[in-house]
Structures are given as structure tokens and as C-alpha cells.
Amino acid sequence: MASHSDTLVVFFGATAGANGGKLGSDERELILLVWQIVDLHENKVAKLQRTLVQPDSADLSEQCKEETGLTAEELCKAEPLESVLQQFYQSVSDELKSLGRSSYTLCVDGPLLIRQVLHPEASKKNLVLPECFYTFVDLKKEFHKCCPNAGPVKDLTLTSMLDYVCVPAAAEQEAGTREVKNMVLLILHLLAEPYNHKFSTSETVNYKFESGACSKTEAVDSETVIRARGLPWQSSDQDIARFFKGLNIAKGGVALCLNAQGRRNGEALVRFMNSEQRDMALERHKHHMGNRYIEVYKATGEEFLKIAGGTSNEVAQFLSKENQVIIRMRGLPFTASPQDVLGFLGPESPVTDGTEGLLFVKYPDGRPTGDAFVLFACEEYAQNALKKHKQILGKRYIELFRSTAAEVQQVLNRYMSTPLISTLPPPPPQMVSVPVLASSPFITTGSTRDCIRLRGLPYTAAIEDILEFMGEHTIDIKPHGVHMVLNQQGRPSGDAFIQMKSADRAFMVAQKCHKKMMKDRYVEVFQCSTEEMSFVLMGGTLNRSGLSPPPCKLPCLSPPTYAAFPAPPAMLPSEAAFYQPPLLATPRTPLSPAHSPAPAFAYYSPQLYMNMNMNMNYTTYYPSPPVSPSTLSYFAAPPGSVAVATQHAPSILPPQPGALVRMQGVPYNAGVKDVLSFFQGYQLQADSVLMLYNWSGQRSGEALVTFPSEKAARQAVAECSNLPLSGHPIRLACCE
Fold first, then answer.
1. What single string gives the DSSP state of each residue in 105-170?
2. Domain RRM: where (predicted)?
3. 439 pLDDT above the threshold of 60
4. How much is the pTM?
């Protein structure tokens, strides 16, 4: 940015903690400010000003005491930051008048004082900084323009710059005064021959964060993106921008991450204007937002686009209106219309452009999800809308909270790409491939969409009712092709899968029978593949948390016959010790055709169904970045295979992202919360922990914990091994 000021105010500050290259990295408060005016036209220098600042905590670090020579007693007599900044502003204004100058720009030795100390501290103390603190000149970068061979900007210091141009440093011993005098000497030298330098370029600090949309085709530099973890769930993009106050975030550069249920998971990806500011953001690792510390890590542009990028024209049009406040509504009745939503919000919170400012979130088949996004022209209207949080619309209470453009993209991307039935994610690289239970001999898996799923069946519905419901299409059902899904009590759950003779027939049935009435209920019919159906029937779907409870508490599902586990590859003793045999159930041995003719349609009794959970929640299949635990299941095997299972050790875990750590020696009364407390600081979610059970359904003293990466898992093992949990030392081992 071009600077037109005719005066520089050389500005220096020190904190109660780290200074120099680590200034601002420890959240310590300002305790010292020193400044001096330099007239660029006359090459004159005004009187040097030095003042102490009273911090809220006068606890000085040893480094600070040594470098500044200040004591807590001196600081207790000083003025607070707000008063000192007012004194600075008044003093500089008066001196400018005496010099006959009209404008000035701050000149600092690097951006840390302005970006990492002054703006963050003022934000935390709710202070409004004068406009002069939003523009500054970086002396190191100006020197580098004149002396490009002096070395990289990040390695320059006042001493090295003075030595390079052969200017003797000031002999002043007082901290702050010495640095300002050296900066003034360097500036005057650059203004003179042979450099004749013009201080015409300045840096700016953004006044506020601008929201906006991001396209998946946009190029995002990975050197500008970070991941913030541990955020309060109710935090908005503005709250995150305030946490990074002083650093310039790109337009629409805050992407809040959602968990498997579509709720915020305490993480966000943030994109900065350049790599220099990204590096400063990384220095705010474990700084505080309220009472919570926030972890800050490097991330990639690909991760940011995965969360924030979108391709939908509908979303792009919705987000094309700039400077709008976005509110997310959750829990809307499925029958709610735009007029219902506008009536609920009321005249005190008018929606931008009426119904054009509403975006309803829907599944790929057009069914509403109960979510919607609303645009408001100003903060006042949005605040009025938020007052209706948990008020009733129809027979349901509605949740309202602040949202972002990136969250709109993420929610729409997730729902619009949701498959009818989930599939397992690919195994991460350099991780052991775990054997998975083979499909039932009755079901040949494939990607052809020659199956249908019936949802919303009357609980009294039987095979005969399904045949009557399908009418003329019953002739296209494969033998053994009807699979009823039962609940925990062994009764029909309202779901069923049907195998058709071809994909065309399945499509035809889904089109003609969707929302057709059966008795007094309409039934939804969706087309799916045998692979998807087989995956669900063989245990690929779990409860809302994504984890499997003990088998003795699981509900039941057909079909009752299963193939054996494939023989796993040979493993090292350490690996074999990790993969303990799962809980085993006894499946029914299928009757041979000679003893039992195959019926046209199969219906199995509840006592013979495999133990698993069949909670069909569309939003549970997409874990949030970096990763969340994938689906877990207990698989069935005959009792005679116990010895074989012990020898070959088939795993209870299908391939999943992240890395697993096995805990041994866990107290029997310890729960998931205890495990999360044990790994405090790693920001794990509740669905990252799987408590293991023994043959009788009791706690085995072991647990499996999913970490977002192999690096995090190894760090946890190194730091937490043999630490006590309720007095018991815990042994940890990685799953290599």
C-alpha cells in the first residue's frame, strides 16, 4: 500500500514475557512503549518519549527483567494501556502541529509489535485503537529494498542492519530508548546518500473480516492455511477473526468444520493473505479464546477447499449478496414453507430479499433435512432473529445460530453428496489392512444399482403386504430377495431391502412406488446397489456416535447366514497381540437344498438374526476433518473357530482413517470421559473412543482410541505411556 505521510513515528514496545523474535507468542501484556518522530522532509528528529504500561498481571518473566531492567513495583505505578494510548495519540498530534506536518505513519522493527501484541491485547480488553495503528512501515523490509544482499528479511536485526551500512550503534543503555535511537539512526542513513530512500510503502491491518464464498476451482496456497482446534462450539467466523486480530484473513477465509451429525466440532480452517501472516498465526498456538486454549496447526489448501469450496449454482447465487449476516436454522418441520419461516422470524428481523434470502438444505432426492440458511442485511436484524432460538414452529423448537459462507458450502456439499447407504473409507497409507467379514452367500455384492430400499413400512407389515404393495413388479424380485430389518425387540423396524432382477427394474419400482400408500402410511422407495445393501446387512451401519456398543446390547438384523473370515496374512507377534479375537456369535448353518427347497422370498426369525445396529442416519457417514472414527462392528463366527480366531487374530475393526492406539490396564469403572481426560490436550471427540468388552459382555480393561494422524498417535504413546488413570498405570501401543 502506498504511503503519503511526511512523518514517521518510530515505535517500540516490550511485553512482560518474550521479546525480540518471539514477541507476542506467549500472550503477555505490554509493559513499555517508546516513540520518536522523524520528519522525512527536513530529516529532523523530535523529542524521544518513553512510558511504562501497567499490565493486569505484574508477573514478569526472567527474560523480561533481564532485558528491560523493569520491576513489578515500577509497573504498578504506571497507567493502564488505554490511558497510555491516549497519551501517545495526543502527544504525537501536538508535536506534528509544532512541526507543521499533517500526517504520520508508524515505523516498527518488524510487524510483531503491531500484529501480534497491540491488536490482540486491545481486542481482548475491548479497546478501540486509533486509526494510526492500522497502517505501519516495516523498517526491515524497507532496509531490504535498499540492501537486498544483507540477507533474508526474517534474519535481519537492528544490530546486523547497522553493521551492514557501517553505522555505529547508540551507546544508550536504557531498554527501549536504545532500540528507538538505533532505528532513527538507520532511517536517517537510508534517507541520505547514496540510498535516498523513499518510505512510500506501508502495510495495513484489516479493520474487519469479510465473509464470502469460495469455489472448488479456486487456487489456494497451502502456505496460507492453518487449522484451529478446540474452539467453543458456538463460536462464529467473527469470533475466530477476533482471535487472530492483527492478522489479515482472506475474504471468506474462515471455514468452520462440522462433525458427523452436521454440528460444529470445534475446528476451523483459516486462510490468510500470505505465508508471513500464516506463520504469525502459528505462533498463537495455545493462545486463549475466553477460558479455552486454541491449538493452531498447519493445514493445506486442499483441506480448505474440501470444507469451504462449493460448485452449486444455487449456493453461489445465495452467497453472491455481500456483507450479509448469515443465520443457520436447524430443526425445521419437513413441511415448513418459506412463508412459514418468514412468519416465524417476524417483521422485526426482515430477511434480505424475502424468500430469495432463504436457502433450504435438501437431500439429493429433494427431501428436506430440517436445515435452512437465512440472510440478514445488518447485525440488528440478525440479533432479533437469534432471540427466537428454541422457540416453536409448528410442533418443533427451532435452533438458530450464527453461520458462515463456508459452513453453507460444507452443509450443502455434505447433504447433496450423501449416498443412500454409507461405504467404508479407504485405509490410510502405511497402515495394516484389516480383514473384513465376507458377504452372505445369499447376496452377491456389486456396484450395480439393482436393489431398492423401502423406508416407512407399517410396523405390522409382512412379506405379503410388501408383495401387494409392489403389485405387478413382484415378478422382478430375485429369489431370497426380500430382507426385513428388525429392531432391538426383534420386530419390524419399518425398513426393508429388496433385490430386483436388474437395475432398470429397480429404477422403475423406485419411480412408481415412491411415496405410495401401504395401509395408512406412505412408503419411501430408493434405488441402491447390492454392494451398499450387503454392506448394511453385514454390519456397515452403526449408531449415531459412530461406535458399536457391546454385542449383548445390540439390536438384530437379517440375514442369518454368514461366510467365514478370510485368512489374514502372517503378522508379527506384536501385531497379533494387538488384534484380539472379537466377540463371537453362533450363526445358523444354512440348510442344504436337498433338505429345504428355496422359497421365493426369505423371511428370518428374530432369534437367528445377526447382532448389529441399524440406525439409518443420513448425516452420520461423513466424519469431519482431519478425521473421526469410522464405523466399527463385531462380526459373527461359529464357536469352533475360536482357536483359529486366536491364532489368526481377525480384527474387529474395518479400515478407517487416522491411527489407532490400544490402551491396556484401563480400570473397569472407567468410561469414555475418563479416557478423554487421560488424553487431555489432544482434542479428541467422544466418538474417538471404543471401550472393549470380554466374552461375557463386561469391560475387558482395554480400549481403542482413534487419533487424527499417525504422528498424533505416536506422540500420545510417547507422552502418555505408563501415566496413571484412576491410580492404574496405562500401557499404550500403536497399531502399526
1. EEEESSSHIIIIIIHHHHHHTT----GGGGEEEEHHHHHHHH-GGG--GGG--HHHHHHHTT-PPP
2. 224-301, 659-736
3. no
4. 0.55
